[in-house]
Write a structure and sequence with these properties.
The complex is a heterodimer of chains A (542) and B (359). By secondary structure, chain A is an alpha+beta fold. Chain A has helices at residues 2-11, 29-41, 101-112, 224-228, 233-236, 248-263, 269-297, 301-322, 344-367, 370-376, 384-389, 394-398, 406-409, 430-452, 506-511, 514-518, 523-533, 537-540; strands spanning 16-18, 23-28, 47-55, 60-68, 74-81, 90-92, 115-117, 159-165, 171-177, 184-188, 200-206, 209-216, 331-332, 335-336, 473-481, 484-492, 500-504. Chain B has 359 residues and is mostly helical. Helix content of chain B is 70%, strand content 0%. Chain B contains 15 helices and no strands. The chains are: A alpha+beta (542), B mainly alpha (359). Chain A binds chain B through residues 184, 186-187, 192-194, 208, 295-303, 305-306, 309, 365-366, 369, 371-372, 374-375, 522-527, and chain B through 56, 59-62, 156-157, 160, 164, 230-231, 233-234, 237-240, 242, 320-329.
Chain lengths: 542, 359
């Protein structure tokens, strides 16, 4: 950490540091953009991990989590306090440095009303255009008179706004347009067979060729981050199962880890192994679903059923131990909620026995099919540099040959004592992303094989205080969810409810590359690219 | 072999024997035939819906409809009544006249094609010297209905679906026609009854061996594309265009598209059985007289239906196995591979026939 401190002082001598979980630098707004570009260019912080908008009552601001992949995935934190008064708070945008910030900053603007200077398209991201107020502000007025249930439909917003500063330091708005006047815009979603939920794309097409994709999000936004501020820590756990429901265990694992880290709780060995196994089972289930949906979105309905047939076995295992097939609510602070079902070991062994043969069958039915290969290969190219820039982690990032597995980079749970390979593909296209998923199923099976006979005896839960109060401070935890790196940010002021919780979901970043990947391809490719990126909508609309 | 022509001419003579004028007898016969054709059409459509649902279920490790009637046999009737009582929703912004006309164009073209198929010896309605040519001509009318449906719905999905359909059907008609012409060259006639009669010694698939088999494969691929079925179901690509050209239709107007799709599957299978597998002609092996005698005891319509259902099975199998192709890949496949290949095969067959290399 001290190395990094020295390096930062070299590029920015007036940096002030704060003690915390990671090295935290406080930067005034005026120096932020310069500091950010130096961090990226000189200190190789090439990955913007999280952007957390904050309302510290006296000021608004943003907490940035930055990761440097060449520096052995070292994480640092930058706190920037917004300039201007509360109505006109602004921060310089870094979307030109890290493309992932484009949507992240729009979310912060939506929720906290901080305007990002230099951002090309400063519109709301989740809420309706006519929404009054910014919900994550502490002084937000939630009265239904201000935002009644609107009975008329939301108008398409085709105007963009871009803010800049004039000579006197005042904010100036430059209007723009999303689509050209004569673009033929096809609306896909929110109710559409292959958007995997209520996602909406507006695609400008020229014949069958896609020219631009505009993402309209927020149809199932539930305001989870706002809701958490009024609930105790055990009460907020269940939200994680309802974000990416295909990574329910991993997400909840992450939140529990973050709280345990803050409380300094040691999780019993048995719970650690159970958590790891559940995470891998969840990953298998998710990738089987991804296989099925990719096949179905391309018209191969039978392959979809094949994927579901094996997934059913995983769900039965969950059903027996957790009591539910979806929204399992299994991890709790300090361990897991219930012990394993007596059949667990037998069922997992049966799954391990079945899966290799099933995978062969999938490859025969779908992966090796000439039509499937022609549809997926060379489509939706995402080079490695773009994958890092857009923070595309998980199987999609590894399909671009980017080694980004959180289980390897920041080992947690039992991952440091099992052997598995990080699957990488060099194609950077939809087929590579698809193949990474198929091969990750094999690796998950490998992890399960190593653990299934070695589940230690003992407690399933550590002793935790009856009333959980986190000490003052902020924590960030990451896990490798089925679709990428899932992060949880908690800021506490010592109450039994959190001051601010932010969920950094992988799918939010995935949907950000749709425009980049789809341009110049056909309408049919838009669907297959979306299927191969495999985003889950509730994870985007938290 | 039993000639169904005996029955029809006996009926005709009986009508005339009652002292009817010629035109009146023909009129009565026409009405009876029309009723029979429509009845056959409906029954076949119902059968095909169940056939596909059951087959698809078995491919997908499912059971398919099981609740209504034994093995779900009555499910299709329930579905039929459901679709009949559904409201025909008319939408704002559509071209009313064309919107309502389109399903009738499609259903008409498919009924006319059905009427051209021979079901048994003497069991056919129209029998003239350009039979197969006529079927091809009528089949191209269907695409007009699809284009009109897509255009008049005033919806971007339907328009894209219609444009895809237009490009697809016009392209694949070439291969389809060329594959059929290959057999016409072998047979020397476009008359359907002659084509079937020529296959008495052996089916054309065996008589023409190599070029006939190539033509058969080309025909099955092109026919799959002609009927807008997977992997060529782009005009109604569910996952891209929700339902393609018939997105905006409801009730029996949608039902017409649905029925026509299934019946077109039967019709292309019927034509394949006619041109390549002998139509209603039983399986005859030259020299095996005893075997041929036994085969002759199975009635012609059974042969015809069994062959048609078998080819339909293959086409349904395609649909539930392959992913969908993309529009540019589909057109490239037709224009760069299938059509030149069919053309070369036609010449190949002409050489075969000229040199007498066939059986």
């Amino acid at each position: 950490m001290s190395d990094l401190k020295q390096d930062i002082l070299k590029i920015y001598p007036s940096a002030t540091f704060e003690e915390g979980e990671t090295l935290t630098v406080n930067v005034p707004e005026a120096d932020w953009f310069k500091f950010a570009s130096d961090l990226k260019d000189k200190l190789q912080f090439d990955l913007l991990t999280a952007v957390v908008g904050m309302d510290w009552n006296e000021s608004l601001g943003v907490v940035y989590y930055l990761t440097s992949t060449p520096r052995n995935w070292e994480i640092m934190t930058v706190k920037v306090v917004a300039a201007g008064d509360r109505d006109n708070a602004y921060i310089h945008s870094v979307s030109s440095l890290w493309k992932v910030a484009n949507f992240q900053e729009r979310e912060v603007y939506d929720m906290l009303g901080i305007k990002f200077v230099g951002h090309p398209d400063m519109r709301r991201f989740f809420l309706r255009n006519d929404w009054v107020g910014h919900p994550l502000r502490k002084d937000y007025d939630a009265s239904p008179e201000l935002n009644p249930i609107r009975l008329e439909e939301e108008k398409n917003e085709d105007d963009t706004r871009s803010w800049s500063l004039d000579k006197d330091g005042n904010l100036v708005c430059t209007p723009g347009k999303i689509f050209a006047e004569d673009d033929y815009v096809v609306n896909i979603g929110p109710q559409h067979p292959s958007t995997h939920g209520v996602m909406r794309f507006r695609a400008a097409v020229d014949g069958e060729t896609v020219k631009k994709v505009e993402i309209v999000s927020g149809y199932i936004h539930r305001g989870i981050e706002k809701l958490t501020e009024g609930l105790t820590y055990p009460q907020i756990l269940h939200f994680t199962d309802r974000m990416d429901y295909m990574s329910a265990h991993q997400n909840r694992h992450c939140l529990c880890m973050c709280i345990e880290k803050a409380l300094g709780i040691e999780v019993p060995e048995r719970a650690v192994v159970i958590r790891t196994m559940m995470d891998e089972l969840m990953r298998i289930s998710s990738h089987l679903l991804a296989f099925g949906c990719t096949a179905m979105d391309m018209g191969a309905t039978t392959a979809f059923f094949y994927g579901f047939r094996e997934r059913e076995m995983v769900l039965d295992i969950f059903d027996k131990t957790c009591g539910a097939r979806m929204s399992m609510n299994y991890n709790v602070i300090g361990g897991v909620i219930a012990d394993l079902h007596p059949d667990f070991v037998k069922d997992v062994k049966e799954l391990i026995r079945i899966l290799p043969g099933a995978l062969k069958e999938y490859h025969k039915v779908f992966s090796g099919n000439i039509i499937a290969m022609n549809r997926l290969k060379g489509v939706g190219i995402l080079p490695k540099s773009d994958a890092i820039n857009y923070a595309i982690t998980g199987p999609s990032g590894r399909g671009s040959n980017w080694s980004c597995d959180c289980r390897k980079k920041h080992p947690y749970a039992a991952y440091d004592r099992v052997e598995f390979d990080e699957v990488l593909e060099t194609g950077c296209d939809s087929y590579s992303r698809y193949m990474v998923r198929m091969k990750e199923i094999e690796q998950s099976v490998r992890i399960l094989e190593q653990l299934v006979d070695k589940i230690p005896e003992g407690d399933i839960r550590a002793q935790v205080p009856k009333i959980i109060k986190l000490p003052k401070g902020n924590w960030y935890a990451q896990v490798e969810a089925s679709r990428g790196t899932f992060g949880v940010y908690i800021e506490s002021v010592g109450e039994k409810t959190p001051y601010r919780v932010h969920f950094q979901s992988p799918c939010f970043n995935l949907v950000g590359v749709m425009d980049l990947c789809c341009r110049g391809h056909m309408i049919a490719d838009l669907i297959s690219i979306g299927a191969a990126l495999d985003f889950v909508i509730p994870d985007i609309d938290r | 072999m039993f000639n169904f022509g005996q029955w029809t001419s006996a009926f005709n003579n009986w009508l005339l024997g009652l002292g009817m004028a010629d035109w009146l007898a023909v009129l009565i016969e026409c009405v009876i035939i029309a009723v029979l054709v429509l009845l056959t059409y409906t029954v076949l459509a119902l059968f095909y819906i169940l056939y596909e649902r059951k087959l698809c279920a078995w491919f997908q490790c499912r059971l398919g409809p099981m609740r209504v009637g034994k093995w779900g046999l009555l499910q299709v009737f329930a579905d039929m009544f459901k679709i009949l009582i559904k409201e025909l929703i008319s939408l704002r912004g559509t071209d009313r006249f064309l919107f309502k006309l389109a399903p009738y164009i499609i259903i008409t073209s498919s009924v006319v094609m059905l009427a051209c198929l021979p079901w048994g010896n003497g069991l056919q309605i129209i029998d003239w010297n350009i039979g197969i040519f006529f079927i091809l001509a009528v089949s191209s009318v269907g695409v007009l209905g699809i284009l009109l449906a897509g255009w008049s719905s005033n919806n971007k999905y339907t328009l894209i679906g219609a444009m895809r359909s237009g490009a697809q059907m016009v392209s694949y008609e070439l291969s389809l026609g060329l594959a059929l012409m290959t057999i016409v060259v072998l047979c020397g006639s476009m008359d359907i009854s002659t084509i079937v009669a020529e296959q008495e010694s052996a089916w054309f698939l065996f008589r023409g061996h190599i070029p006939a088999i190539i033509a058969f494969i080309i025909y099955v691929i092109a026919a799959t594309a002609e009927t807008n079925r997977g992997p060529f179901d782009l005009p109604e690509a569910e996952h891209e265009l929700t339902a393609g050209y018939h997105t905006e239709y409801s009730g029996i107007h949608f039902g017409f598209f649905y029925l026509a799709e299934y019946l077109n599957l039967f019709i292309v299978s019927g034509i394949a059985s006619l041109m390549f597998l002998g139509g209603w002609m039983p399986l005859h092996v030259p020299g095996w007289d005893g075997f041929n005698m036994v085969m002759n005891y199975i009635p012609g319509p059974v042969w015809f239906l069994a062959k048609a259902f078998f080819i339909s099975f293959v086409i349904i199998w395609f649909k539930w196995t392959f992913p969908r192709v993309r529009i540019d890949q589909m057109l490239a496949f037709e224009w760069k591979y299938l059509m030149p290949f069919a053309l070369a095969n036609l010449i190949f067959m002409a050489v075969f026939v000229a040199l007498g290399w066939h059986f």
